[in-house]
Hints:
The complex is a heterodimer. By secondary structure, chain A is an alpha+beta fold. Chain A is 39% helix and 18% strand. Chain A has three domains: 8-306, no CATH class; 312-428, no CATH class; 436-493, Arc Repressor Mutant, subunit A (Orthogonal Bundle). Chain A has helices spanning 65-77, 179-196, 235-254, 300-308, 314-323, 329-337, 339-352, 358-376, 387-398, 404-417, 421-428, 436-449, 451-458, 464-475, 482-493, and strands spanning 8-10, 13-26, 85-86, 89-92, 102-105, 115-119, 131-142, 146-148, 157-159, 166-172, 208-217, 227-232, 262-267, 272-278, 288-289, 296-297. By secondary structure, chain B is of the alpha/beta class. Chain B has a domain at 4-263: Amidase signature (AS) domain (Amidase signature (AS) enzymes), CATH 3.90.1300. Chain B has helices at residues 9-18, 23-35, 48-63, 106-113, 161-168, 185-191, 225-235, 279-294, 310-325, 345-356, 359-372, 377-398, 424-428, 435-439, 469-483; strands at residues 43-46, 75-79, 117-122, 174-179, 194-197, 217-222, 265-269, 298-302, 404-408, 444-451, 457-464. In chain B, strand 7 (265-269), helix 8 and strand 8 (298-302) form a beta-alpha-beta unit. Chain B is globular, with a radius of gyration of 21 Å. The A-B interface holds A 51, 54-63, 90, 92, 94-96, 99-102, 156, 158, 284, 286-288, 291-294 and B 82-83, 89, 91, 96, 99, 101-103, 105, 205-210, 212-214, 240-244, 320-321, 323-324, 326-328, 330, 332-334, 345-346, 349, 369, 372-374, 377, 381.
Amino acid sequence: MTESTYRIRGATGDWEVVIGLEVHAQVTSNAKLFSGAATAFGAEPNTQVSLVDAAMPGMLPTPNRECIRQAVRTGMAIDAVINKWSRFDRKNYFYADLPQGYQISQLYHPLVGEGVVEIVLDEKDPNSVPKAIGVERIHVEQDAGKLMHDQHPTRSYVDLNRSGVALMEIVSRPDMRSPAEAGAYLSKLRTILRYVGSCDGNMDQGSMRADVNVSVRRPGEEFGTRTETKNVNSVRFVMAAIEYEANRQVAVIEDGGRIVQETRLFDPDKGVTRSMRSKEDAHDYRYFPDPDLLPLELDDAFLEECRASLPELPDAKRKRYEGELGLSAYNAAVLTAEVETARWFEALLAECGSDVPAKSAANWLISDLYGALNRLGKTIGDSPVSPAQGAELLKLVADGTLSGTLSKQVFEIMLETGQGANAIVEERGLKQTSDTGAIEAVIAEVMEKNADKVADYRGGKDKLFGFFVGQTMKAMGGKANPGVVNDLLKKALG
Amino acid sequence: MSNLTDLGVAAIRDGVRGGEFSARDVADAFIDAVAAAKPLNAFLVETPDHALAAAKVADDARAAGETLKPLAGVPIGMKDLFCTRGVETTAASGILKGFVPQYESTVSGNLWNAGAGMLGKLNLDQFAMGSSNETSAFGNVISPWRRPGDTAPLAPGGSSGGSSAAIAARLCPAATGTDTGGSIRQPAAFVGITGIKPTYGRCSRYGVVAFASSLDQAGPMAHDVRDCAIMLEAMAGFDPKDATSLDLPVPAWEAGLNADLRGKRVGIPKEYRVDGMPAEIEALWQQGIDWLKDAGAEIVEVSLPHTKYALPAYYIIAPAEASSNLARYDGVRYGQRVLPDGAGLQDMYAATRAAGFGDEVKRRIMIGTYVLSAGFYDAYYTQAQKVRTLIARDFEQAFEQCDVLLTPTAPSAAFVLGEKSADPIAMYLNDVFTVPSSLAGLPAMSVPGGVDKDGLPLGLQVIGKPLDEQGVLNAGLALEQRAGFVARAEKWW
């Protein structure tokens, strides 16, 4: 996947798409970037607002260390340069959702410099070649409030709950060449943020959104003029916006027009982008260093702590699952794509101990558990079965107490009743038996009832073996160990 | 006891402690004086209840035999740039008319914790932008001083003109001021009182209506050096709510007062001898040099070569910050809102700010917006910041040769109100001696040195090394003891 073959087929030939993303990710923190106010999503309007967030006279911002720490950890997770000296700037503009009349951001000296995010187009395809997408910078800044236009016929209301919430702006290089690559980048970034714990990645709640920069060019030529589509809030929409925008640009150029550098909006209902404002109307933000804040200087101990607190990241985890645990590339990719899944899987492994092979645990999670969750419309986060309960079941399979068929039955009962596997097996007598005496007695009975078939079998009709297995299992109520039944039958039939 | 309103901070504090008079007596005397001084227009809001409550606490504590707080029984004036909980705070601007904060500035809170009471909120130049008090939206303060045989109203200086006039007129023994480019020192000089701007970061800016964040610094104004030291000790201190606050203990400045300057060197910056400086100021400066020699100091000439760029740099940096700091006054959440019929958001902003801000504030917002604009930023703002660095370096190098600097505070005595209001540049020149130390964040104070030919006060400025308020206070004390300044405004109001 080093060179993308994605092309827009225009009337005059093929066009290559060039994409860069600016991802705004809300920092997971109990408090806002420069005030102590809370940041809960979905709270009543204006209940998460301090005097600082409302920009009351004389109020001053003071940096929240946790927000800085999360941004630094995020930078470390994408192998980025961490700038030990950075500074906050004011971006000045008037809007009713911006109480200060400026946003505190970092233009000139961002907290995090160059980094890289590795993507593979098809995580499940072991032959898919990874591609490195450059990250130019990550800076931290304040979010704005929200205007509500539907509360009153002639007035707009302002909700400042989000005002001052910390955002990381993660700016990529224009390294993506197809909607699929952009989608893979955004998904991967989201996975990393969720592993690190610096952003919850809830795109539908707006905690992650992307500004999409798109231009088109003839393959290999200079970059074309780009447009920026603002605030796109799902992976699917990002891909749709790029596809629409790239085709629109090709059509404009091929019609003899020129692309205007402008800001556009994506309409998810119609799947189109629309012009919001052109460069000529662009604000002059009058950036300058915020005189209320000292430059941010990070010491080695702080950086050390940030690094030490990083969890195992998805790429490393996937490699370990393949190598140490011997999982297939597909299973390793599935289990590491969401941090919750990986956590659940590792909890399951811990509960299983050495009694259950990792492969069996992985297979059970991906086929049985996921199948059940899909059916129930649940996610692994609200799975009705805990890792400990899963391990209890898997151990019964591993020690031969349950056959594969029986284990599926027991799992269904677990899902319905919430009972543990051991209790179910005891209560309902679902235990598989390997008691040779009991099985031999049943076999003797079956052979007696079917003396004619015994004679046929002994006369060379080998195919009848399956019949005897079936009869024995049936008589045992499905609880006989199939291996033992096979062995004993072979012996008895001679 | 002759007149309680003639007493300063230390005398009131000691008198209340010693039982010579009650805090209630003191509060009553000042409350009456304030009520009787309407013509000066020094107070925007009078808060007798606040002063009386603090007096009661002091008197009760004394009656109960408790140790009294450092400012117990001392009623003070509060510049109306400090937010005071439950008391209207306007920064003398129409745009904040009626604004009552639900919070207390750290500095005012510190003063109340030290036992002080508040007589009222003091008038000032609108958003602290001005040198004469004429930019107040609520009418200018009039200085208690007059030229002999002349009733022309004189400027009390600015922006802390309400503070300076109130102290000079004995309406309060001390007051808070704020100083961005000279707003404590110049008004102190104009009315013959003492005022100190401490090192940037000593006093928290939390709850102080912002003018220019990198320059704004609170400080006390009072009758003498000791009173300033007492006040500053109460006002200063680390505040986690201000990211630029200095995390350092507050020295015992009053206890450290010492007018013996033997072994100290006083620098005289040659660049401060500006063209057209009145001979009387020149003479007073020389007099000050002689006084400090007399106190044992060695006098050295020093050079601050970038001084002439200070004023232009200041009038880029301060308006730049102000243009952004004042963006929050938009009519959306508090203060004045002007909503013309059918107006949209932008119209509301324009109408609100046009009606709410005075001309000088608008002028500085426009200058600030201009110098930060794309295409001008480097030529103005970046350049001004470089000048600021050079000015700070000038001081650093000068302080290798001396401990404090001595200069005049202002290039003239108080002028007649209206005399300079038509010419902003002439008004800005008032700050020529005070602005450089503001740009460098240094402690600096003005001490009354003498009077001009009209009998109007003139001030001397002492500038110190970063954090060396003690050195500044001590040199100020040496000047004060030798100047023996006793002139006072005759009561006409």
